Amino acid sequence: MKFSSLFLFRGTLWTMGAFGFGQLFRLLTSVALARLLAPELLGIMVIVNSIRTGVDLISDVGIGQNIVHNSNAENPEFYNTAWTIRLIRAVLLWFVCLLVAAPVAHFYGAPILATVLPVAGLFFVLAGLSSVAVPLLQKRMQFVRLNSFEVIQEMFSSAAHILLAYLIPTIWALILGGLAAMAARSGGSYFLLPNIKHRLHINGEYARQIFSFGKWIFISSVIYFLSMNFDRLYYGKVAALGMVGVYGIARALSDMVGALILRLSAYLVFPLVAASRATPRDQLRTALAMKRLAFLLMGAVGIAVLTTTADVVIRILYDQRYQAAGWMLPILFLGAWFSMISSLNESTLLGFGKPLYSALGNSFKFVWLLIGLPIGFAQFGALGVIVVVATSDLWRYVPTLAGQIRERFSFAGQDLVATLVMLGLVGLCEWLRWSFGFGTSFDVLPITGTG
Asked: What is the pTM of this model?
């Protein structure tokens, strides 16, 4: 299947524009919640979200990826099988939350978690009830409808969280806000493709196909959870909850870069490559090369600007309780560059039906975190944690590069050039800032950090 450059350009604009609006609402929500709630509450939510994400990913069989990838996805027999499997899984995950609530509360020494986790687990049931319309729109690459839905969902989520935090400034504002947002998303998803009729049904052959493709997604998801959340779980155990809340804000802001790349990869790169599998690899690589380079160069400019201004943004938007995020954020933004190029590589390989390399990449990253975080924290406190996290995606990049070379679809030279450009732009921006008397983004780094 061929897609014109204009089609891809419009898709990119819609995706980036919708993402920009969505992240603006998330930023406003973050600032409002930081002013309305204590840092300790945000710290508890970091733990809750990490546990919930872990429960989700350790049982993931890639229902959405299956729908995008499978040629039978438009068949009601297939998508109803996928929908039914997802719903059964969602109910089981809620029961898991009920079972782990007390042990998790004991482990972190936070009794409130025993009450909060069972309620937060209802998120899974609400998510399982949503329509399969979203992955079907991804498969069809219907950017306008898909991205408009995402923006509306972000607006509602922001409004719900802020209103509840104002009315009940406790941990329940965050829990109930998340549930309200997911309920709205699930209900709204049925209006995206109203001709899709859902019913409980399992076709044995299609279920076999889903689990066959999903076994690598499952392995990749387990390792992805560990690589993406181990830092939060570890830091939540060794540091004060207030500091964990500050770290959560810095991570959330730096993750915006990774989230943009993941959305572009999921909405553009993955479905494009999956739909073009019949095209010779060299032709497809040539068609994508310049577009990919242009995107990386734009990303390099963005990373340079974000790194140089991150501490200023924190000083303006957040009160004194959260100022430590100002030195964390520039380092994390630098690390987001390697997340960017790794995600691009992974989505390409997933489009070829090769999720194994993503699992290997996240394995390398997790091992680095597993070894590096305790050492970094013991030697340098919070600074050590931040540096280890920022460099973790460099290890994730290695197996994905090896996978692209093996699949005859490597962009190693392009990645090297773009990385050098990014570092040069960061150096230039930091020099300009220093020359105008504003110092650098790294002037306030704690030499001997504490948790």
From this structure: 0.69
